[in-house]
Amino acid sequence: MNELSRIYRTRFGKDIEFRDRMWKVLCKFFQRYVPEDAAVLDVAAGYCEFINNIKAARKIAVDLNPDVKNFASSNVEVVIAESSRMKKIRNASMDIVFVSNFLEHLSKADIKKTLGEIYRVLKKGGRLLVLQPNYRFCYNDYFMFFDHITPLDDRSLSEALKLSGFRIKEVKPRFLPHTTKSRLPKSVFLLKIYLKMPVLHRLIGKQAFIYAEKP
Prior knowledge:
This protein is an alpha/beta fold and 215 residues long. It has a single domain, classed as Vaccinia Virus protein VP39 (Rossmann fold). Helix content is 36%, strand content 22%. The chain is built from nine helices and seven strands, in the order ααβαβαββαβααβααβ. It has helices at residues 3-12, 16-30, 49-53, 68-71, 108-121, 135-138, 154-163, 188-195, 198-204, and strands at residues 39-43, 58-63, 76-80, 94-100, 122-133, 167-172, 207-213. The chain has a seven-stranded mixed β-sheet. The radius of gyration is 16 Å and the shape is globular. The protein starts with a helix and ends with a strand.
């Protein structure tokens, strides 16, 4: 078992079933940004909860961990690659790129390279959707995970996106709670209520959501 496999299984092994049910609900929110005829790329797809549950004409999962092949649905193409070197993905071939809870695992240099690769593979007018722990609101727990490297908040990430050529369309500094490891109850029913009540986002949300476009 490689290091990435060990980390994933140690951190999420007991939560896989719940996380899949959670992402089925979350994808109903994200679907408003994703036309069903789109080509969608999930960078650092992990257990493929997003890419398996989002509706799209073409779906690609990129991850450095070969275990991703075991979790991707049959209609998902799998590419084993670093996010900063996605050579198998053609230029301007994707309508949507999704990145969740990943950039904090990279150095600033690799974040810059990854954003450059995402910009390359997106079509003009293509959308980048980023779900990201917001250091401003979860600094006490940001480094609870051993492989977190770079602290990012909604402002620094927005600046990095702009410097990479993206146009910021929407920023939610507070969206979701920081992690499924929190003390909040694991309940799909409560998640549905939470998503419908933005006032709760401002109280509990510690992850930012940013929607950007390639001009």
